């Protein structure tokens, strides 16, 4: 139930001088905000599994909408959508990205990864989980993980923002993996901030994605003589 890009879009851009040559790579920094009164926080009860309930006897806050008291919005994937040199192929990082199953929740709830990079998934719980994903490429997997400290490794072979991972044993468990073909992406933190570093000089369109609030797309952002650019995104609730 994503809203259209054109609706309720608020994007601001400010750039300022940094004393460096134009050929030097730059950084985009910014903050993601939620406009308006946030909905009441929702707590997840885990009584369906006694082991999960034991670990979270009062329930746990849903990670779908993480909004700070100042309106900051966490869990938003910000990535360069267009403007990069299409002939450049970016090396896949050798180090994996980690996703844990801890306290009967996926941790973190939202993460980013490059195409072809290893996603290492661990079960830190003493109860059984399953890891079920259906990427746009059709490389569906559904792997049971019955043992504590069990680890599996997966890869995604095409851009997909974002792949939903769920647990068929515990229906409240979900995570989102943004699969990007380059390294120029970030996920907003609890204070709404993000930073995308080492961007080549050029003019770019930047996209922000949230699992329920949809997509926002920026105006042109230029990395040149000004090595540091500020780009803020705002979302309005459904």
Q: How would you characterize this protein structure?
A:
With 238 residues, the protein is an all-beta fold. It has 2 domains: 1-90 and 184-238, Immunoglobulins (Immunoglobulin-like, Sandwich), CATH 2.60.40; 92-181, Immunoglobulin-like, CATH 2.60.40.420. It has one helix at residues 50-55, and strands spanning 10-16, 26-35, 43-44, 60-61, 77-82, 97-102, 105-107, 110-114, 119-123, 129-133, 141-145, 150-154, 160-166, 174-180, 185-187, 193-199, 202-210, 214-217, 221-223, 228-236. The strands form 5 sheets. Strands 5, 15, 17, 18 and 19 form a 5-stranded antiparallel beta sheet that branches. A 5-stranded mixed beta sheet has the order 8-14-13-10-11, with no helix packed on it. The protein has a 4-stranded mixed beta sheet with strand order 1-20-2-16, with no helix packed on it. The radius of gyration is 19 Å and the shape is globular. The N and C termini lie close together (9 Å).
Helix content: under 10%
Secondary-structure element order, N to C:
EEEHEEEEEEEEEEEEEEEEE
The number of helices is 1
Give me the CATH architecture of the largest domain, please: Sandwich
Q: What distance lies between the first and last C-alpha atoms, to the nearest angstrom?
A: 9 Å
Helix/strand class: mainly beta
- The low-confidence parts are 1-23
| Strand residue percentage | over 45%
The CATH homologous superfamily of the largest domain is called Immunoglobulins
Major sheet: 5 strands, antiparallel
Count of discrete domains: 2
User: How many runs of DSSP E, i.e. beta strands?
Assistant: 20
CATH topology title of the largest domain: Immunoglobulin-like
The CATH class of the largest domain turns out to be Mainly Beta
The rough form would be described as: globular
Rg over alpha carbons: 19 Å
Mean pLDDT: 89
């Amino acid at each position: 139930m994503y809203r259209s890009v054109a609706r309720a879009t608020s994007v601001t851009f400010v750039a300022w001088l940094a004393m460096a040559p134009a050929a030097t790579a730059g950084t985009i920094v910014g903050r993601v905000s939620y406009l308006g009164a946030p909905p009441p926080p929702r707590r997840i009860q885990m009584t369906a599994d006694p082991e999960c309930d034991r670990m979270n006897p009062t329930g746990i806050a849903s990670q779908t909408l993480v909004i700070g008291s100042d309106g900051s919005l966490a869990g938003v994937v910000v990535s360069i959508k267009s403007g990069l040199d299409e002939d450049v192929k970016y090396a896949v990082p050798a180090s994996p990205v980690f996703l844990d199953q801890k306290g009967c929740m996926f941790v973190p709830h939202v993460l980013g990864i490059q195409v072809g990079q290893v996603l290492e998934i661990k079960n830190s719980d003493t109860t059984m989980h399953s890891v079920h994903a259906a990427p746009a490429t059709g490389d569906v997997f559904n792997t049971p993980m019955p043992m504590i400290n069990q680890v599996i490794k997966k890869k995604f072979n095409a851009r997909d923002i974002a792949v939903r991972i769920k647990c068929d044993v515990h229906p409240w468990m979900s995570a989102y993996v943004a699969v990007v073909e380059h390294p120029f992406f970030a996920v907003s933190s609890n204070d709404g901030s993000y930073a995308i570093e080492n961007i080549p000089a050029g003019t770019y369109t930047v996209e922000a994605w949230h699992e329920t609030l949809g997509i926002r797309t920026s105006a042109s952002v230029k990395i040149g003589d000004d090595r540091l650019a500020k780009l803020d995104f705002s979302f309005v609730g459904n």
